Automatic annotation (TrEMBL):
It comes from the Bacteria. InterPro entries: LysM (IPR018392), LysM_dom_sf (IPR036779). This is LysM peptidoglycan-binding domain-containing protein. Residues 18-40 form the LysM domain.
């Protein structure tokens, strides 16, 4: 029996490549392809073997240059063209809200810090517009993935597993959003209540003990009626940041003072006075950038946390698609400066 060695598939076969010819330089190839030399070098070096890294120019033995996908190049060109353009607003400097264009899946990351202790929760959430009524109230469906990671791991403790069960009851969740993009109501309360009846029996079959009983009691109080459920869900960071009501009228200089409410703990609101500002020009990625920055308006926080903080800060940055005005990514931080440092961070970005 004879064994014939087959040539191994080239490492670069899965990429779009340029075959380097005698006399080629990085500069000449960049000119021929209409791409900046630094851009060619950067993309190639991200994916090539270590020995094929491009430094000042091609090596004497270099055979292939890894090229970015054509779609990637087109997107980069579009961003370059948009970069530096003035943000387009509607009548009376209003930021347009075009909800019918929203059907997106987002990666959501919550980070909660107390002193040196840090907890990180990650999940995927889908946001889909369903309908708009004559009064310009919009119906959205929110769905959350069943896969949730807490500090990089699936739920393991009983309280974490019960929390995951809670998501099965709530989602898909249908909510009502006003013309400014602010969440105002729950639409499918009866459906959620019906789900709970089935889920409760499942929980009782698998879990027992005081913690389970306390969880069931708390859930049933939350589901007393639509208002109690709405009040409880108002503490959800995703809803409060994504549907924040940013689609409002701005002044001629793209800014104004605003009041933003944000939950510092369950069912407890904090009011912040913030400066809300749109950066007049699109950023380097062609996004509309909106910032909110301010501090707590009331000194009564000590009642909530059992101590008096020296300062409470709130900051948010939104990046919107310049054509659809939909959220591409955002970052919200709320921190309490006192003897015990507390910080909430919410990061949301589109999943490709």
């Amino acid at each position: 029996m004879y064994h014939i060695d087959k040539p191994e598939e080239s490492t670069y076969d899965k990429f779009r490549t340029y075959k380097i010819k005698k006399g080629d330089t990085l500069a000449s190839v960049a000119k021929d392809l209409g791409v900046e030399a630094d851009e060619l070098r950067w993309y190639h070096n991200m994916y090539c073997e270590i020995q094929d890294l491009i430094e000042a120019d091609f090596k004497s033995y270099s055979q292939f240059l890894i090229l970015a996908p054509e779609k990637y190049i087109e997107e980069r060109k579009e961003k370059e063209e948009k970069k530096g353009q003035k943000v387009s607003l509607g009548n009376d400097y209003g930021l347009p809200f075009l909800p019918e264009r929203i059907n997106e899946r987002y990666k959501v990351k919550y980070t909660f810090e107390v002193g040196d202790h840090v907890d990180v929760t990650e999940m995927a959430i889908n946001v889909k517009w369903l309908a708009t009524d004559k009064n310009r109230y919009h119906l959205f469906e929110i769905n959350r993935s069943k896969i949730v990671h807490i500090n990089g791991l699936p739920p393991s403790s009983l309280i974490e597993k019960l929390g995951a069960k809670n998501a099965e009851m709530l989602y898909p969740l249908k909510i009502v959003v006003d013309k400014f993009g602010k969440w105002v109501d729950i639409y499918n309360y009866d459906e959620i209540e019906s789900r709970w009846e089935n889920l409760k029996n499942e929980i009782l079959d698998y879990y027992e003990g005081e913690l389970t009983e306390a969880y069931i009691d708390h859930t049933e109080k939350t589901l007393t009626n639509s208002d109690t459920l709405l009040r409880s869900l108002r503490s959800d960071f995703f809803f409060r940041t994504f549907f924040n009501g940013i689609y409002v009228g701005y002044t001629a200089d793209y800014s104004f003072k605003n009041e933003v409410s944000f939950p510092l703990e369950e069912e407890v609101e904090a009011i912040f006075e913030v400066m809300q500002k749109i950066t007049p020009l699109l950023d380097d990625d062609g996004f509309i950038k909106i910032g909110q920055k301010g501090s707590y308006m009331d000194s009564g926080l000590g009642f909530l946390y059992g101590y008096t903080p020296s300062k409470v800060n709130y900051s948010a940055i939104y990046f919107l698609n310049s054509e659809t005005y939909t959220i591409e990514k955002m970052n919200v931080e709320c921190n309490i400066l006192s003897d015990k440092y507390i910080k909430n961070t919410i990061k949301i970005e589109l999943l490709e």
